[in-house]
Every structure is written in structure tokens, then in C-alpha cells.
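For reference, the entry.
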Amino acid sequence: MKYYIIAGEASGDLHASNLMSELKKTDSLAQFRCWGGDLMQKQGGELVKHYRDLAFMGFIEVLANLKTILNNINLCKNDIDTYKPDAIILIDYPGFNLRIAEYAHLKGYKVYYYISPQVWAWHQSRVKKMKKVIDRLFVILPFEKDFFKEHQMDVDFVGHPLLDAIENHSINSLNDINVFNETAHINGKPIIALLPGSRKQEIKTVLPIMLSIIKDYPDYKFIVAGVNTQPKEFYNNIIGEIPVGVVYNQTYNLLQTAKAALVTSGTATLETALFGVPQIVCYKGSAISFAIAKRFVKVKYICLANLILDKLIVTELIQDDLNTKRLKEEFEKIIHDEEYLKHLHEDYNDLKIKLGGKGASTNAAKLIYGYLSK
């Protein structure tokens, strides 16, 4: 069958690529055309647009790039009609994907949504549209199934794909460890991972604050998780002469070896928790974007681990709370407070259990192929 898959950011590229891998096992004739990234391309996807050209963060940036976004939507619609897929699979990225879902439904295509928009957090008005234009929803958070069933949507809980991605990842040999250590210039010090995100705007805002505590901790090796979608000069301009390492597209290797982490809010916070790494969640946006979001967001936390367990297990430093003083206070806790760390690791174990075990990509692929075959 022919699948048209749309992912708009790095995490979507990862999960879509794993889904494609499983679809190929289930459907020997699977063909893919996609919007996404390098990982999807490696699975045989014919790439229309890379996600680095699609990532616009916050209300102001979206407005400034509205013409580009609308042009991309029109390009996608036309490309779908040319390709004529058996199914369209949408991965998160709701601002773009829900527009495509609406169009695809009107044109009679099967529309499947894997990794739902977080409409339970805000924009619950979107649920009504989702119900009309999506044939089947595959959710990855345990509480999402009940939420969408309450809105009379056809929904399957498949488990969280990060459990598979992390289990499949390992530094298998001494050589791999040596290569990573050499790349990062570890020199035997405990590693602190800095995960400032993948979008230029969030990196520019959050990374300088993360870097501001380094001078007070000379006994640790701080390493930035860089992404290849941003040029090295971009990171170098922010870092300057600060003694910090940078590794590119090695986030899982970094987390596997880290003692603690400072993490920009998003999927990376859940990845860090599943690796068992103590963390501080950092978020700072434009004042206007944050003020608008605050009016509409309907959840208590921004960290997925906190949301899933419905309690504050990981500290969140948001907006004005994200400053050098507060960051140092919380950093002391995640490297020295043994009682705090004991409870944190117990909560991390509960988190893995609640996420439902491995096999999300396999479950989703089999369900999608099964529904199509009917």
C-alpha cells in the first residue's frame, strides 16, 4: 500500500521512522512519501520537505512566517492528490496536520493520526474537528484514550514509542564509548547534559541561562546536545569561551552517560526521565506568547513525566523562574540531595509502568494495516 506520512519535527521523524520500519514488516508492498527528516528517508521514504523548514515556534513566529506556512499547506495538498495514497498518517504537528486532515477527509482519503495533538492541554475546541476528519486515532499516553472516548472518537492506545526507541538504543562496545568520550572530551568528570531543544528560537533563549551556572561547577563536564539542523556556528556564537562540550545528534548517548540534565520542555523531558536521569525542566518564551498560552492551557504541568503521574516529580522553571539563581538552587538538589533522588527514581519506575510497555510502533503498524485491509 501507499502511505503518505507527515511529521514536522525531530521527535516526529524518530517515531515515524520506527512506524515505517514496522509497516514494512507488516505490509511487504509498503511505499512511503513523507514530510519529515533523515530517519524517515533512511526507511525508504521519498522526502517532500524536511522538518527543519517547517519548525516555527510561538504565536509571533507563526504570524511572521504565515505566508510560508500557507504555501507549504497548499504544496502538501497538491502533492497528496498527485501521489494518491491508500492512507495518510499524521504524526503530532497539529497546526499543519489538522488542516491536511480536513482536506484529505473531504477528498475521500483514509486519515490516521498517530501521536495525537495535545488537545487535552489546550485548544480542546479542535476535538470536534478531529472527530469529523480523522478515521482512527492512535494515542501514546494512557489518559488520552479516556479523554478521546469521552468525545466519541475511535481511538486505540498503543503504548509510548519512546520505550522502544530507548530500549533499542545502547552503546554496545567499548569502542563506541571511547568514540563518544573522545568527541565530547569527557576527561573522567561526571557529565551534565544540556538539552536546549531543536528550534533556533528556544535554543537562543534557554541555552545562555543553562550555561550561566557552569563557572560554579568546575568538577563537572557540561555537554550540549546539539542538532544537525542548526549550524555549528550558531552554537559557537552562543557558547563563546564558556568551557562546554557540544555533541551533535548523540542525545541518547549523552543521556545514557549523564549524571543529571537541564532540559527544555518537550519530548526530551520524557526521554530524560526514561533514561533515569535527574533533570530540571526549563522553559522561557516571548512574553506575549506565554501570556496567550497561559490563558488557554488547561494542564497543571509542562513536563510530560509530571503530567502522566499527575504530580510534580520534576522541577519546572518557567519564564521568570528560569534564572541563574533558581537554576543553581535546583541543580544542587539533583546532584546532591540523596533523599530527593531516591524518590525521583521510584517515580521514574512508576512512569515506565504507566506508559504500558514496549511495542508501540508494532502495535500501531498492525492496527493501521488491519483497518486498511478491512
Remarks:
- The longest strand covers residues 258-264.
- Residues 171-175 have pLDDT under 50 and may be disordered.
- The longest helix spans residues 66-83.
- Residues 2-159+359-373 form a domain with the Rossmann fold fold (CATH 3.40.50.2000).
